[in-house]
Design goal:
This protein is mostly beta strands. It contains no helices and 17 strands. Helix content is 0%, strand content 52%.
């Protein structure tokens, strides 16, 4: 499906220069009295190389439609991650770079969405929110709770996030896997 260059957005997969590219970032720019353009950062899905082209609004870009299937994460072996398709029970491996910054939140048995193109897996999307435990957090400083301040905390997966001052170490919290930010306390089960 052809789309205008100005319609290219973050998260899309496009075909450009006979390669498949993942749109990492985009920004519409209008310099002075010139025509606006879309400055994008692309990542080659096969090699991982990056490119920063400019697309004019009247330029036609091929948007690739991907198939999405639910899979379970089974195990990691170095940089190779093994998944199982929930429908066909077929197992396949992918490099951990396909997950990006959210990789530390991948848990054994987690159900993820794997996007494929012509049967080849291209990317993995974790659930929007995951529950993790805080292993280390600074103590509350008296009087600091009046302002809306946050304190650093280290999660069980080693990721550092900012949490409200009333959250102690040992607490389980919900973290957004796209922004890597604290969302709320986890509900007690």
């Amino acid at each position: 499906m052809k789309i205008d260059g100005s319609a290219v957005r973050m998260g899309m997969v496009i075909e450009w220069q006979d390669k498949l590219w993942y749109v990492v970032k985009h920004e519409i720019r209008t310099p002075g009295n010139l025509r606006s353009f879309n400055q994008v950062e692309l990542k080659d899905l096969r090699t991982g190389n990056k490119n920063n082209p400019r697309f004019a609004s009247d330029e036609k870009i091929e948007r690739v439609s991907l198939d999405q299937r639910e899979c379970n994460f089974l195990f990691a072996d170095g940089d190779a991650l093994t998944f199982m398709d929930n429908e066909s029970y077929e197992q396949f491996t992918m490099n951990k770079e396909m997950i990006g910054e959210a990789f530390p939140f991948l848990q054994d048995g987690m159900t993820v969405a794997v996007e494929t193109y012509e049967g080849k897996p291209l990317s993995v999307k974790l659930p929007q929110r995951v529950v993790v435990k805080i292993v280390e957090a600074d103590p509350v400083v008296k009087g600091q709770t009046a302002a809306s301040s946050y304190k650093p905390a280290i999660l069980e997966n080693g990721v550092r996030v900012m949490v409200p001052p009333f959250i102690p170490a040992g607490e389980t919290i919900v973290v957004d896997t796209t922004t890597l930010e604290y969302v709320e306390r986890a509900k007690a089960s």
